[in-house]
From TrEMBL:
It is found in: Cytoplasm. This is Peptide chain release factor 3. GO terms for cellular component: cytosol. PROSITE patterns: G_TR_1 (PS00301), G_TR_2 (PS51722). Increases the formation of ribosomal termination complexes and stimulates activities of RF-1 and RF-2. It binds guanine nucleotides and has strong preference for UGA stop codons. It may interact directly with the ribosome. The stimulation of RF-1 and RF-2 is significantly reduced by GTP and GDP, but not by GMP. Keywords: Cytoplasm, GTP-binding, Nucleotide-binding, Protein biosynthesis.
Length: 530
């Protein structure tokens, strides 16, 4: 490992954490890969639970039912496993068409991501969206080209697509030997080994290079000749793997395998262990916080309502950034100055919640509370600092909430406010006093909102279209320019839940026009909280 010898237990614990997410378009194989990773990590009892959890949850509330009906996970769970002395925290991001802001925010809590591509499909719409969120924070990305056991695209074309569509250099660290039903394994370009498809990585066969004559004896003359030529071309034409460039997010190492056949997964996991960074220093408003500091800091990136609709309990997901979290600690919620007791921090495994004894930088813990903790909150042992970078993303769907019983209007206002604080939806109040608009990035969030309003607040609602499709947060060096814009566009300017100004547009074309007409303003698709 290329890490300096840790100087303290804090540094040592931080150095052995790898906190990551898998980003993928639906069907690329994320679930299968997750299962296989957990298996490798020795969390055997958990593998299979990844799928089983879809069935195991009982009908605890309506919005959990949505999850079951659609067979998707609304919850972002955290799966932890150990391997080779390292602790891997895999934060689950639902990669389905119906994704939500939770998916985005989860990516603010990881230090690396694995991008899974279907070998036959390459970069798909959702892959790209998720990648762009990673890029916002320069998150290093390892690429796993999955389904190599099936007919797929030419690997060179895939490399090219990554480079062209994502503007990310693609450095193959392995190269497929044979294709589809003829797929024999991969050649490890960095360590000159042949990884046979039906063997564990312990059976990797060391070779002198892609032109080692022994390869022909292993895979046949034809496949060996093809590899010789292709590997030569890959080494000459593709960028070389470069740890520094990977860590700064400008280059991705590319692995090939088949999650279904459990091939290439060990190689990928080795790559995560070797190359993915441990927790890194994180920017707060007043200073940068290093993971090896001995005082606890962390931030809340997700809040989930308790499964039990009769209780207003919430679980806040805290990403630990420095120090050690111990059961029974009292932490300071910087936003309010309040003390928050952490009596029973929870680790979220795929199957069970377990009471954690301690958590270190890179770990994620759940903190039960009654609505005190909000997304973006920083917790410390007393210091007044706020982590930046838990963002709001401009919603892609805007709706008016239609109330079936007008008597409930006031109650609805309170409920929407609370749910907006929790991050279930975003809420925009037009300056002209028109009814508020809810904004979400995925349809699923609307379904969750609807069922929770009914189950938890007793408010049945429907949704109506609005004249708008696009939202941008506004800022300007000159406040007067903002005021002029707001005055000129009163019907199309609103405040978000924190009082920040947004412009609402009927179309993206309108947005572009406004941006041209108001060069003194800035229009942001992402807003950082705090
Ligand atoms: P997710 O939607 O990204 O979580 O994808 P899944 O892991 O559920 O996989 C989608 C489908 O692809 C399932 O039918 C899997 O069995 C299949 N699949 C996943 N990995 C592979 C693979 O390596 N080879 C083949 N042939 N099929 C795969």
């Amino acid at each position: 490992m290329d890490l300096p010898l840790p100087a303290s237990p804090f540094a040592a614990e931080a150095a052995r954490r790898r906190t990551f997410a898998i980003i993928a378009h639906p069907d690329a194989g994320k679930t299968t890969l997750t299962e296989k990773l957990l298996l490798r990590g020795g969390a055997i009892q958990l593998a299979g639970a990844v799928r089983a959890k879809r069935d195991a949850r009982h009908t605890r509330s309506d919005w959990m039912k949505i999850e079951q009906e659609r067979g998707i996970s609304v919850a972002t769970s955290v799966m932890t496993f150990e391997r080779g002395g390292l602790v891997f925290n895999l934060l689950d991001t639902p990669g389905h068409e119906d994704f939500s802001e939770d998916t985005y925010r989860t990516l603010t809590a990881v230090d690396a991501a694995v991008m899974v591509l279907d070998a036959a499909k390459g970069i798909e719409a959702q892959t790209r969206k998720l990648f762009e969120v990673c890029r916002l924070r320069d998150i290093p990305i390892l690429t796993f080209v999955n389904k190599m056991d099936r007919e797929g695209r030419d690997p060179f074309a895939l490399m090219d697509e990554i480079e062209k569509t994502l503007a990310l250099d693609a450095a193959p660290v392995a190269w497929p030997v044979g294709r589809a039903h003829d797929f024999a394994g991969t050649f490890d370009l960095l360590h000159h080994r042949f990884l046979p498809v039906d063997a564990t990585e312990a059976d990797a066969i060391p070779l002198s290079g892609p032109d080692d004559p022994r390869l022909a004896a292993l895979v046949g003359a034809e496949r060996a000749a093809a590899l010789r030529e292709e590997a030569g071309l890959a080494l000459a034409a593709c960028p070389e793997f470069d740890l520094a460039r990977f860590r700064e997010g400008t280059l991705t190492p590319v692995f090939f395998g088949s999650a279904l056949r459990d091939f290439g997964v060990g190689h990928l996991l080795d790559g995560l262990a070797r190359y993915a960074p441990p927790p890194r220093p994180r920017a707060a408003d007043s200073r940068e916080v290093a993971p090896e500091e001995d005082r606890l800091t962390g931030f809340v990136f997700k809040v989930q309502a308790n499964m039990d609709p009769n209780h207003r309990d919430r679980v806040a997901f805290l990403r630990v950034c420095s120090g050690r979290l111990l059961k029974g600690m009292r932490l300071r919620q910087v936003r309010t100055g309040r003390q928050v007791p952490v009596n029973a921090p929870l680790f979220f495994f795929a199957k069970d919640r377990q009471v954690a004894e301690e958590a270190w930088p890179g770990d994620v813990v759940g903190i039960a509370n009654h609505g005190t903790l909000r997304i973006g909150d920083t917790l410390t042992e007393g210091e007044s600092l706020n982590f930046r970078g838990v963002p709001s993303f401009a919603p892609e769907i805007l709706r008016h909430v239609r109330l079936e019983d007008p008597m409930l209007a006031k109650k609805l206002r309170t409920a929407l406010s609370q749910l907006a604080e929790e991050g279930v939806v975003q809420l925009f109040r037009p300056l002209d006093g028109a009814p508020p608009v809810v904004g979400v990035v995925g349809q699923l969030q609307l379904d969750v909102l609807q069922s929770r309003l009914k189950a938890e607040y007793g408010i049945p609602v429907g949704f109506d279209a609005t004249p708008w499709e696009v939202v941008r947060w506004l800022s300007a060096g000159d406040r007067a320019a903002l005021d002029r814009f707001a005055a000129a566009n009163r019907r199309d300017v609103a405040e978000d839940h924190d009082g920040a100004l947004v412009a609402l547009f009927a179309s993206d074309w309108r947005r572009r026009r406004a941006e041209e007409e108001w060069p003194m303003l800035r229009f942001h698709a992402v807003r950082e909280q705090h």
